[in-house]
Every structure is written in C-alpha cells, then in structure tokens.
Amino acid sequence: MSNFLLYLISVLIWGSTWFAIEFQLGTVPPEVSIVYRYAGAAALLFAWCVYRNKRLAFGWREHAWFVLLGALLFCLNYILAYRSQVYITSALAAIVFSTILWMNIINARLLFGIRSTAKVIAGAMLGVTGIVILFAPQVGKVSFDDAAIIGSLLAIAGAFVASLGNMASQRAQKRGLPVVQSNAWGMLYGCLISFLITLAAGHEFTFEASAGYIISLAYLSVFGSVIAFGAYLTL
After folding, report:
1. Among 217, 211, 229, which residue's Cα sits nearest to residue 33?
2. Angle between the 60-71 and 179-201 helix axes, to the nearest 10 degrees?
3. Which of 43, 79, 88, 214 could form a disulfide with 92 if both were Cys (CB 3.0 to 4.6 A apart)?
C-alpha cells in the first residue's frame, strides 16, 4: 500500500473520530468505553492474525514493548483525550491535540537525535494552522473558564503521552516487531490496563444500549483503532 493511501486513511478516519467520541460520553465512564473499544479491536486483530497464520508467540522482552505501547498508545492517551472532551468541545480538543506534531518533532530530536527538515517543520506549521482555521467558528464560541482550561490541559497531556507512544512504536519497529501483532498485543494490554484503572477508580461497568453509543463504539473499534492505527504505524 502506498504512503499516500496510508496517510489518507489515517487522516480521514482520525479526523472523524473526534466527533464519534462525543457519542461515547454520557452514562458510561470514559475509561469503561475505552475498555470496550480496545477489547473489540484486540479481538478483531487476534482473529485476523490467526486467519492469516501470523506469529503471535513472542518473548518477554517483546511483551515489555507491547505493554509500553498498550499503556501509551491504547490506554492513557485515550483516557486523557476522552476526559478532555467532557470539559471542552471536540473542535477545541482536536486543535489542542494537534500539538502532537510539535511534540513528535521535539521528542524525536531529544530521544533519537533526529533533526527535522525545514519541510517537516513547515508542514507541521501548515497543518496546525489549517486545523485552527477549520474549527475557528466553534472555538470562537468557547468560554475559557475553568472547565475549558482543565479540558485543554487534559488534551495536552493526552497528546504528550501519545507522542511518547509514537516514539516507543518507532523503536519497537526498529527492533523488528511487526505492526499487526504489535497492535494486537498492545491493544490487549491497553484494554487490561484501562480495566485496572477503571476498577481502581471505582467506576461501574455500565453499557448504553443506544444506537449512537453502539455505532460510535463499533466505528472507533474497527476504523478508529484497527484500521487507522494499522495504517498510521505502518506509515
């Protein structure tokens, strides 16, 4: 699959997941919704691996990387992102989360010594500017009270954790770990960590049997997790 197609898949799907997350917020605690999301995504990926006869047995060192990926990419960053949208709109959350572009540039430099080119920096500036312009009408209506500040800080923290997850994924792939199996195990571990966090926080495992919740959950599991992460991390 070409880089352009992988990029297009990632952009189109993740560009819409911010709206889908809105339907996940309500009666079900965000942490519980994340458990459901990645339980379904992990099940689909493991089933695909079995169907395609892909290797699923790995050593403890590889599983350590899978746990790290699960915690950073499929658990903590999403808990922070979901929680941020309790306080702020999806438009503002998307703008704040776009700072991950700069975090990736800085973290790649600090952790791996990768110096970004002028084209990369210009592209990051253009991308963030485009997102701000796109959502300017909605953001202009936001009242920057305590709730907006809390939501923005949660979104920034989520973006930072996701950026660290990107760095971990890059290092894992350099170690030769395959993307599909890494995602399968990572999502399983992310689901388990979210489950433990949910128990520790005392949240009840409720379920909202509405069309909006079920459809958005299915979309986030299949497209927002399995397909988008597969395309993004391959890219």
Report:
1. 217
2. 60
3. 88
* Sequence-ordered list of residues with C-beta below 8 angstroms from that of 115, at least 6 positions apart, any chain: 109
Residue 38 has pLDDT above 60, yes or no: yes
3-state SS string for the chain? CCHHHHHHHHHHHHHHHHHHHHCCCCCCCHHHHHHHHHHHHHHHHHHHHHHCCCCCCCCHHHHHHHHHHHHHHHHHHHHHHHHHHHHCCHHHHHHHHCCHHHHHHHHHHHHHCCCCCHHHHHHHHHHHHHHHHHHHHHHHCCCCCHHHHHHHHHHHHHHHHHHHHHHHHHHHHHCCCCHHHHHHHHHHHHHHHHHHHHHHHCCCCCCCCCHHHHHHHHHHHHHHHHHHHHHHHHC
Q: Which amino acid is at 229?
A: F
Q: Which two tokens stand for residue 196?
A: 């433990």
Give pLDDT tens digits for 153-176: 899 999 999 999 999 998 988 889
CB 87 within 8 A of CB 151: yes
- Cα separation, 209 vs 204, whole angstroms: 15
**pLDDT tens digits for range 82-118:** 999 888 887 778 888 888 888 988 898 888 888 888 8
Between the alpha carbon of residue 4 and those of residues 8, 11, 127, 232, the distances in Å are: 6, 10, 16, 11
Q: How many whole angstroms separate alpha carbon 17 and alpha carbon 82? A: 11
Which amino acid is it at 50? Answer: V
